[in-house]
Design brief:
- The protein has 732 residues and is mainly α.
- It contains 33 helices and two strands.
- The protein has a two-stranded antiparallel sheet.
- Helix 3 packs antiparallel against helix 4, helix 27 packs antiparallel against helix 28 and helix 29 packs antiparallel against helix 30.
């Protein structure tokens, strides 16, 4: 043991680094191969120990990892997650993720071979076939529609057979079966295969599982009616009528009409009368009333014919004349169509024969009512040439008042004729008399408010419309009149409040929205004004005043590029007015796009070669841009200015001649012509305004002239009330 102890020599006590190169010979590995003891220990260590020794066990009593038991080593499973296996051989790479094994095998697909999945796919196919059949029928391909319906029937039967094998009868899809059969029967009818259609309908009707199958007896009755088998048609109609409850009123009425028509076809007029009488007692309509008159005529019962005719004329026509015959826009095609409807052959018969025929009979009172209704219809259609024959209207109004002095409708119409003649004071008396007889006569109250407004009795007009608002709180006409009256009274806040209520009733009316924008603009609230003007433009992008305001707003806010859109729209609406095209060019110039401005001015010059303002800007732009064509435009400008001077001289001489004629009291034709010329020339722009074509025709059509009021200057608000919200008198 002392042989490994090294003592430091006494003569090197001061050497601090001595001993660093010395090492224990036990760590010398160069001679390990020749070391017999080490080689013996290596051969007998760990797993190569002699088997005579007992295997080591853990504290739990199981063999330890790596222990050989019965010739088999216990696997080292604790290191498998790191990629180690007992089969690892020398030279194998470290592969903890198992990438060397390649990609994982694909997921196993779900098999669709099950019977339930097949039935689900088959049901989907049946629905698709029914849909394709309906589409083909709507496209007019009746043969293809029938083929698809038949195929759907075959597939549905196959589905039913398979479902019965694996499921109880309660699981059958009855709705699908009903749909397939009904579609098949309908396609048979469309192809005029009536026998097959009846057979299919019988299958549905006889199946008690279809709760609504009985209603299809109506379809079977229709088929028999087409086959002229009227007795069977009546039978099936009556069977269907018995199965339809009274809650389906309209359906029962239609079936009874069919029964009556079938009786007429068989000559059984008494039975037909019974059907039509029942209809007229439950829900009168024109068709049933007319057929009832024919049946009474067929049996020769004139007295009952008269009664049936009276009941017929009491049936409401269900025609809204205001919506059907009044043009609500300026579309030329729509206006032409309405004119054609007004003057078609049926309207001619109504005007020329109906009233005259009744006049010739002993029903003179009925003729008077028809005349009044005819005049009212003309007024609703705004056909004033026909409806506003004041002398004739006055005569009929007098007849109505004389026949019944206490009739509010007659008094209101009498007041309307006086109002049309301009005597608003006297008209107001008739309206008040009508209100004394019937305080809820809204037409008389409304017209009384209009009469007071024309008489400039604003407080009384306001009182009338406030009363009317209490009766008709959602009337757009009344709400507008209230707003208009407050505007006349110079109370813009109240006017705005009423207009806000109005747009809650008619939220898409562009004129009301523009009126709100105008009021807010007057009050200085530009943001609200901009909002309502934009809304008005969205619903009616052809209002020139709205377009002009929006364009000016964007110019004021230094967004000239956005203003171009609105001025281009105005130029499109009024192509003969140079003003809007000059504004477009001006916007390009203000935004710094001089090249676009130059091109636009050139386009304007080609359309309006004598416009001085356009030529001036062309000269200025060409000079600033150093273009050679500036001299050409200077020459054209001089010529245009000379023509303008000559025109102004003619205007001046014309005005002087007209003034002399008026002074001398001359009534000759020359003076009249001079006055007309002077009136036309007054409309021409001044020297600083852009030139506009004097022969311009408004593409939106001429605006109807409105009566003027001497007591108060007519304003734009009143014109709007006349045109849009019924300032015209309301006939009773």
């Amino acid at each position: 043991m002392m042989q490994n102890v090294h003592l430091a020599p006494e003569n090197n006590e001061d050497d601090l680094y001595s001993g660093y190169n010395d090492y224990n010979p036990m760590f010398d590995t160069e001679d390990l191969e020749n070391d017999v003891a080490f080689q013996q220990a290596a051969r007998t260590s760990h797993g190569r120990r002699p088997s005579s020794k007992a295997p080591l066990t853990s504290s739990m009593g199981r063999p330890m990892t790596g222990t050989i038991q019965d010739g088999v080593s216990r696997p080292m499973t604790a290191v498998q997650a790191a990629g180690y296996t007992k089969a690892a051989v020398r030279g194998s790479s470290f592969d903890p993720l198992g990438q060397a094994r390649g990609p994982a095998s694909p997921l196993e697909k779900k098999t669709s071979d099950s019977l339930e999945e097949k039935m689900r796919q088959l049901e989907k196919k049946v629905n698709e076939l029914v849909e394709e059949s309906c589409v083909a029928n709507s496209c007019g391909d009746l043969k293809l529609a029938l083929e698809k319906a038949k195929e759907a029937g075959r597939q549905e039967r196959e589905l039913l057979r398979q479902r019965e094998q694996i499921a109880p009868p309660e699981s059958i899809n009855l709705d699908l079966t009903y749909t397939v059969l009904l579609n098949l029967a309908s396609q048979y009818v469309a192809n005029e295969m009536y026998a097959e259609a009846l057979t299919t309908y019988q299958v549905i009707v006889k199946n008690k599982m279809f709760s609504n199958g009985g209603i299809l007896k109506v379809n079977m009755g229709n088929i028999y009616l087409k086959q002229r088998n009227y007795s069977k048609a009546i039978k099936f109609y009556r069977m269907a009528l018995d199965q339809i409850t009274s809650s389906h009123k309209q359906m029962r009425i239609k079936i009874m009409e069919n029964i009556g028509v079938a009786f007429i076809k068989t000559g059984q007029y008494v039975d037909a009368i019974s059907s039509f009488e029942e209809i007229m007692s439950i829900s009168p309509n024109l068709k049933a009333g007319f057929n009832l008159i024919l049946c009474y005529f067929a049996i020769g019962n004139g007295e009952q014919m008269k009664k049936a005719f009276k009941r017929l004329i009491e049936v409401p026509l269900e025609v809204d004349y205001e919506d059907k015959y009044i043009s609500l826009n300026d579309d030329l095609h729509t206006n032409l169509l309405i004119e054609a409807i007004k003057n078609d052959s049926l309207s001619q018969i109504e005007r020329d024969r109906c009233v005259d025929a009744v006049k010739a009979s002993h029903y003179v009172e009925l003729a008077n009512d028809l005349e009044i209704n005819k005049a009212t219809t003309y007024l609703r259609q705004q056909n004033f040439n026909q409806g506003n024959e004041l002398e004739q209207a006055t005569n009929y109004a007098d007849l109505a008042v004389n026949s019944d002095r206490y009739n509010p409708a007659a008094l209101t119409n009498k007041g309307n004729t006086i109002f049309a003649n301009g005597d608003c004071e006297k008209a107001a008396e008739f309206y008040k008399e009508a209100l004394r007889n019937d305080s809820l006569c809204t037409e008389a109250l409304y017209n009384l408010g209009l009469a007071y407004k024309k008489l400039n009795r604003i407080d009384e007009a306001l009182d009338c419309f406030l009363k009317l608002h209490a009766i008709l709180p959602n009337s757009a006409q009344v709400l507008y009149q209230l707003a208009n009256i407050y505007q006349i009274m110079e109370d813009p806040n109240q006017a705005i409040e009423w207009l806000l209520q109005l747009i809650s009733v008619v939220p898409t009316d562009p004129h009301v929205l523009s009126k709100l924008g105008n009021l807010y603009d007057t009050e200085g609230d530009k943001s609200q004004a901009f909002h309502y003007y934009c809304e008005s433009y969205r619903y009616f992008p052809s209002n020139i005043e709205v377009i002009e305001w929006l364009g000016a707003y964007y110019i004021d806010t230094q967004f000239c590029e956005k203003a171009i859109e609105y001025f281009e729209r105005a130029a499109l609406i009024l192509p003969t007015q140079v003003k809007w095209q000059l504004m477009v060019a001006s916007c390009y110039r203000r935004s710094g796009n001089y090249q676009k401005a130059l091109e636009k001015y050139k386009v304007i010059h080609r359309k309006f070669p004598e416009n001085v303002e356009c030529l001036r800007f062309l000269v200025r732009l060409c000079t600033d841009m150093g273009l050679k064509e500036v001299q050409e435009y200077i020459t054209k400008l001089k010529k245009a200015e000379k023509l303008k001077e000559l025109r102004e001289q003619r205007i001046k001489s014309g005005r002087e001649g007209s003034a002399r004629s008026r002074k001398e009291g001359s009534a000759d034709s020359g003076g009249t012509k001079g006055e007309r010329l002077s009136a036309k020339l007054k409309a021409l722009p001044g020297t600083s305004e852009p030139y506009e074509n004097a022969s311009y025709a408004d593409p939106l059509g001429p605006q109807p002239e409105r009566p003027k009021t001497a007591a108060r200057k007519r304003t734009e608000e009143d014109d709007f009330a006349d045109e849009e919200l019924g300032e015209d008198l309301l006939p009773e």
